[in-house]
Write a structure and sequence with these properties.
alpha+beta; 47% helix; Aspartate Aminotransferase, domain 1
Amino acid sequence: MTEDEFQEFVAPFGDDQRSALVGLRTLILSHSTGLDEAVTTGRWLAGFVFYSTSGQMVYAIGPKGKAKVSFHMMPFYGSALLQQRHGEVLAPFLTGKSCIAFRLLDDIPVDALVDIVERGTPVMQQMVADHLDAGSRPSLKRT
């Protein structure tokens, strides 16, 4: 996704939503590598920007109602360690097992999000790669 495409994506939103989405994008792109970025048209979270590896969503950002934004973090969902480290500070913002919602980026513990992205992205990328690799191996048949 180009910068112009992202700006087109956030253009319809209010100032606070636009600012928060730009901030989340910057955070994700600054603290991870190797993720694909695209607006999803799929069944789940259609219209959100997905950050994925080998077609598997790692993060998703998008609007929540008219005033908030939503940040879905699969590494947080899948890691007991990240939940233990950041669950308490993220608790007021959690709307699900992997999702936080907030109005302003300044309202949330950004250092926790940076840690989740920095630690969680490579783990998710490796898990997806291992899963895809395992699927290409012939299965063992028991007789």
